[in-house]
Amino acid sequence: MTRIANDPDTFVDDALEGFAAAHADAVRRVDGGVVRATSLAPGSVAVVVGGGSGHYPAFAGVVGPGMAAGAVCGNIFTSPSAGQAYRVARAADAGGGVLFLFGNYAGDVLHFGDAQDRLRAEGVDARTVLITDDIASAPIAERARRRGIAGDFVVFKIAGAAAERGDDIDEVERLARHANERTRTLGVAFGGCTFPGADAPLFTVPEGMMSIGLGIHGEPGIRDVPRTSSRELARMLVGDLLHDVPETRGDRAVVIVNGLGSVSHEELFVLFRDVSVELRAAGVTVVQPEVGDLVTSLDMAGASVTLVWLDDELELLWAAAADTPAYRKGAAVPAPSSRAVAAPIESPPAAPPRPVATPDDRRRAEYAQGLLRAAQDVITAAAADLGALDAVAGDGDHGVGMRAGVDAAVAAFDPEVGLRGALTAAADAWSERAGGTSGALWATALRRLASELPSADERSSVTPAELASAVGAAVDAVAERGGAVIGDKTMLDAMRPYADALRAGATADVGIRPLLTDAARAATAAAEATAGLRPAKGRARPLAERSLGHPDPGATSFALIATAVARHLEQNA
Ligand code: ADP
Ligand code: MG
Description:
By secondary structure, the protein is an alpha/beta fold. It folds into two domains: 8-329, Dihydroxyacetone kinase, domain 1 (Rossmann fold), CATH 3.40.50.10440; 359-571, Serine Threonine Protein Phosphatase 5, Tetratricopeptide repeat (Alpha Horseshoe), CATH 1.25.40. The chain is 46% helix and 14% strand. The chain has helices at 11-22, 82-92, 106-121, 151-164, 169-181, 230-242, 265-281, 312-319, 359-393, 398-412, 419-434, 436-452, 464-482, 492-508, 512-529, 544-547, 553-571, and strands at 27-30, 33-36, 46-53, 70-76, 98-103, 126-131, 183-191, 209-212, 223-226, 252-259, 285-292, 301-309, 322-323, 328-329. The chain has a six-stranded mixed β-sheet, with helices on both faces. The protein has a six-stranded mixed β-sheet with strand order 9-8-7-12-10-11. Strands 13-14 form a two-stranded antiparallel sheet. Helix 10 packs antiparallel against helix 11, helix 14 runs antiparallel to helix 15 and helix 15 (512-529) runs antiparallel to helix 17. The radius of gyration is 24 Å and the shape is globular. The protein starts with 10 loop residues before the first helix and ends with a helix. The protein binds adenosine-5'-diphosphate and magnesium ion (MG). Adenosine-5'-diphosphate (ADP) is lined by residues 79, 106-107, 390, 394-395, 397-398, 401, 436-438, 441, 478, 482-484, 490-492, 537-539, 552-555. The site of magnesium ion has 6 residues, from loops.
């Protein structure tokens, strides 16, 4: 429950501003996140971390000598946008390349991936290592699909120490991967967390129970078991962790007992005590442990245990000094150089002269603007329900993300530049403001729609066949970008039947209004039918069973928009 806030919509910015002001000697606010206030040694690797907000001290709190060079800060539990990641990386870059480190979530992969492409195109050696420490989120044979939780901190620390001592980007990347390979986490939740402004938690754990395998976005655990003593809990967590180890395990491990937001440190120490006993009994030597809140989930009541199986090179880097707002270790890091702060943020390129549309093209654009506004209205009305649906097995942010995206798209949509230009600007704005998987994919869809629609010509309308073909291409683009197939329980399961219905109707030459109404019906039925599917993609995948019986949030919001668009046309016939 958030007790101190202004407007929930400005919570993230307000908190980040306060954080930067409180740590003005350590960090500098840039558009999209923070970077160190002091410069990196010229030519060194910039380790740039990030993800959604709500996880403090991840991610802004670990920026400083010996750890990250910058942190990209998205909305609560929502991946930052590609633009944010790009700008923070630019500001952090010291000439030695940029290494992005973040937990393995679809939205982050899409947005950071775009930023990486953009940096590379500009000659910056940008790389990525995904963090996949959560053993509850996929079996060991599918380690690459696991999500990143408290192990984020470990990989940041190891890579940050390597960058600090002057390793080049090949080496920093290798060590980050190596650290991730040898880091495993398992957690437990006793109670859910509440978004700023919300009056109920994202999920609840039944009285007297605890939920093993929690995520850090309020995703509930994968199995509920009766609450036990700390000793029993330690036995359970350590038991599972000892069954999920790297091939060459060794017998020295860092142990992290991490609080998720509202468990007292004394309780964490009790758990650490019992975890140590279990590990000692298993012949494991505990090395330089950490107990505290390192990667949180708003005010979630929960804790996790991370084991980092050490070898000599990891142990050396783990022991290295660090000096960040939220985490200090060892002797002070050498005083920062007085050199001016690294690469300044690029000022946005001057806006190109705005093309003025022909009157016909402007009319097409105004028509589309009406449809986009209809989408905005339905999303505004449904945002809370979409959030609740996403909280069943995902992270509860789908309503917030869709609303931020469509609001930004409406604001950016300018009919004066014509249909394609206005749609492209709306797509960029959607991605930039919404972040998240759905933000990236909706932007992809709108961008492709814009490029596939016939260019401005002397006609003020689009034919059903042109529309069907453009929508089909947009859906292909979503499939390609997100890598999902039909049946994976994603928005694609509603989008594909919609596109198919449009194509079939266009061939049969029904008018555009009945065509869109029929297609919307097909999308709605398909979205409802996703209730019977198990998710194979995205944040809901680790909680597939829980998702059964509930439709997919992204498919549902798509069907709502399709229906609103059709209704708008019927009403404005
Ligand atoms: P996030 O998953 O980043 O929190 P949202 O909650 O806004 O983003 O969106 C979740 C929706 O995104 C899911 O309900 C699903 O429809 C869609 N989705 C997730 N992964 C994919 C994918 N790989 N391809 C297509 N759609 C996806
Ligand atoms: Mg979500």
